[in-house]
Design a protein that fits this description.
The protein is an alpha+beta fold. It contains two helices and three strands; from the N terminus they run E-E-H-E-H. A hairpin with a 2-residue loop joins strand 1 and strand 2. The longest helix is centred in the last third of the chain and has 11 residues, at about 40-50.
């Protein structure tokens, strides 16, 4: 279950974002995305893998 998903830039929170927008924000300079999951299902982990570009 997704608890929170937020984008940060230059150390400041800029927005709560939906999961499909993660990859858009991590491509921006000086940005990162914080995702809090609790007891994630395999499909949720796969979605995170795709959004973050993990292998």
């Amino acid at each position: 279950m997704l608890i929170n998903c937020a984008a940060y830039q230059n150390g400041q929170k800029i927005a709560d974002i939906p999961k499909p927008e993660i990859s858009d924000y991590i491509e921006q300079p000086d940005s990162f995305v914080w995702v809090a999951l609790r007891d994630p299902e395999p499909a949720e982990l796969e979605e995170m893998r795709e959004e973050f570009g993990l292998h």
